[in-house]
């Protein structure tokens, strides 16, 4: 049995004044990508300079204006990467490059060496402030921990004189979620006083969920408490840096935005230490799904996944929100049926808003339009089969025919196991409806419509069990005339046409017609559909008749 008593409950802030539960997210925050720093430091094989460059280019294309590119004092590769960005003039004027450093003189000195030549830079200093780290890592009192932060701030300030670009200071009370809020406030205020508006840019206080330690409402309370207790809130950018230890990194980010956060640090697809940083893409796509402009250019999620997997050597899970291979796929019959109906309702009504059951966004909006939306296995129903036949191949199966063909597909799935891909479905469709030429095979048909007496004359060549037959008849239309022409040469035939429908396949001069004939064998009572395709609509329907006749004959077995 699990020994849950080894774990004590984390304290919950008592903050009944909270207002965040009644708020809504209204606009995108300032995004800061930490892919090249927190994401990179957590990789089994950190990115090399070329991979970092590819990732940096992607982040620029996605529209990030703040990018933490690394911890340049920590390793030669991070230092070299930064220098390469400068040497190759890779940093656009409207983009701030962010660098992380501990509050240690040699590291701050080296950081300033690395950033020479950058126009806009965020220098990010941090030290750990939680009760646990104060005790077991630093063995220091609160005041001594504050001294580290003040010293770090002073080190940055002292470098301003020898630096040409614009510096913005960011301070993180690292392990904030395990820190008493009044102490976090005290240390931030001390940093702010020491900084004393040393540059024009507002100071960034970044309150990280370095480790997620509680339910998302607790983090929201901590953020709102800080936001409403800062002395000089107007001159502060309140940033959050969520991790995902409890699997609620996205939730705490969204609640932190309700609670007053202005800025979010995170990574694409949630790479980062342990369970990762918050996945910025999910937060952004969630906003998008609510009609809010996420202010990132994220309409091609497949490209992002491809570059991410290559540079980070990580794999995106099939169920990953928005980006996973299966997230716009429905296997089960009732979901497929509902998607099918939802898509048709949207088309018919010309909806202003996207509203399709089970699909919170239109996959096409984020570059997923060429993927099969519905995949078919033994759990699938007629709706899904009809959806694939329509969206992939353009066949709009009549409602009554959907059950018949879905049974064919289900049989294949059960016999062979697993998924029936669209191509296999089409092969089955052709085999069922087009390829069977026994006992009836249409060879030639000539149709003459007599407008005066509203009759149609057909001249028909067909084979019955391989024997060539010529027959002519008059009927009240081509279908009736063909039926009579067949019957007078094959007297045992007793078929009735119950229903007929057609539509065009494709567009323009190359378009064809697809005709569906529902037919009954009056002797056995069996009913089936036949399908015919031709560039000529009458020929399509006659082919459909022959298709249905062969299917009925196969069922009755005594025609052959
Ligand atoms: C939550 C986060 O992700 S924070 C970012 C973490 N990222 C990284 O650490 C990646 C890059 N880091 C490194 O490469 C190395 O840690 C370096 C180069 C920065 C420093 O290396 P080293 O000095 O060899 O080792 P280390 O990091 O263990 O240093 C620990 C010392 O720094 C002190 N320290 C830790 N954090 C800070 C800080 N923010 N400010 C000042 N001193 C600090 C510790 O108290 C400890 O002091 P001690 O030696 O007196 O006990
Ligand atoms: C440096 C800080 C912001 C950090 O990475 C964390 O707390 O996770």
UniProtKB/TrEMBL annotation:
KW Coiled coil (keyword) present: no
UniProt binding sites for Mg(2+): 38, 241, 243, 277
Regulatory domain: annotated span: 436-560
Record keywords: Acyltransferase, Amino-acid biosynthesis, Branched-chain amino acid biosynthesis, Cytoplasm, Leucine biosynthesis, Magnesium, Metal-binding, Transferase
InterPro entries, alphabetized: 2-isopropylmalate_synth_dimer, AIPM/Hcit_synth_CS, Aldolase_TIM, IPM_Synthase, LeuA-like_post-cat, LeuA_allosteric_dom_sf, LeuA_N_DRE-TIM, PYR_CT
Signal peptide stretch: none
Pfam families per UniProt: HMGL-like, IPMS_D2, LeuA_dimer
EC number(s) on file: 2.3.3.13
Catalytic activity, reaction form: 3-methyl-2-oxobutanoate + acetyl-CoA + H2O = (2S)-2-isopropylmalate + CoA + H(+)
Main enzyme class: transferase
Known cofactor(s): Mg(2+)
SUPFAM superfamilies registered for this protein in UniProt: 2-isopropylmalate synthase LeuA, allosteric (dimerisation) domain, Aldolase, post-HMGL domain-like
CDD domains xrefs: DRE_TIM_LeuA (cd07942)
Family: Belongs to the alpha-IPM synthase/homocitrate synthase family. LeuA type 2 subfamily.
Subunit structure as annotated in this protein's UniProt entry: Homodimer.
UniProt-recorded name of the protein: 2-isopropylmalate synthase
Organism expressing this protein natively: Roseburia lenta
